[in-house]
Amino acid sequence: MAKKYEEHRGEHGYRDGGGAGAGGARGRVLWVDQPAGRRRMPDPVRRSAVRAVLIVALTLTAATIAFFLTVTGSWLALPLSLGAIAGTVVATWGVLDVLITRQAWNQRNGVLSEPSSTARDRRRERRRAHREARSAPPLPPRTPVRGEANGIWPPPTGTGRS
User: Fold this and answer.
1) Would you say residue 90 has pLDDT above 70?
2) pLDDT-based confidence at 8, cuts 50/70/90?
3) How many Cα neighbours within 13 Å face the side chain of 119?
4) Residue 159 pLDDT exceeds 80
């Protein structure tokens, strides 16, 4: 799956017409595309993630500047501190937005997955047991045991209960 862009050079280091020079040896590989380890994020999720990273970066910058202004005793410390607090709330919203967008994407466009062999076997066993239970003859009606409630309330008189 990797693309290879190769350069062929002749005897004197000049580009060859396809290996027709002396020996026709191939040159070194200039570029190899390797498959990524993870799949690319969906566009809405990536947009919200970029937005969240920018908001968090600005909030951290504002908080750092507010801290240094507080240390130096500047009058700008209070407004910037209030801005940093508001930025923290917005940054929290941004991170939650990434999680919610990701979850909504997964629910709408569903991750296609195959059940594992153990799950498939369990499901087959449950189906088989359910089929056998439906095809089995019905059980005879059960007579209540002494002292067991039989659905009649209040109990008839003369049962010995007061």
Assistant:
1) yes
2) very low
3) 4
4) no
Q: How far apart are CA 48 and CA 97, in angstroms?
A: 7
Q: Is the pLDDT of residue 48 over 90?
A: yes
| % of the chain with per-residue pLDDT over 90 | 38
DSSP string, the chain: ---EEE--B-TTSSBPSSS-SSTT----EEEEPPPPSSPPPPHHHHHHHHHHHHHHHHHHHHHHHHHHHHHHT-TTHHHHHHHHHHHHHHHHHHHHHHHHHHHHHHHHH----PPPHHHHHHHHHHHHHHHHHHHSPPPPPPPPPTTS--S-SSPPTTSS--
Cα-to-chain-centroid distance, residue 54: 21
Q: Are 63 and 83 in contact (CB under 8 A)?
A: no
68 is written with which tokens? 């240094």
Element (H, E) at 56: helix 43-72
**Cβ neighbours, 10 Å, residue 17:** 9
Asked whether the bond before 154 is cis by omega within 30 degrees of 0, the reply is yes
- pLDDT tens string 12-26: 554 545 555 555 556
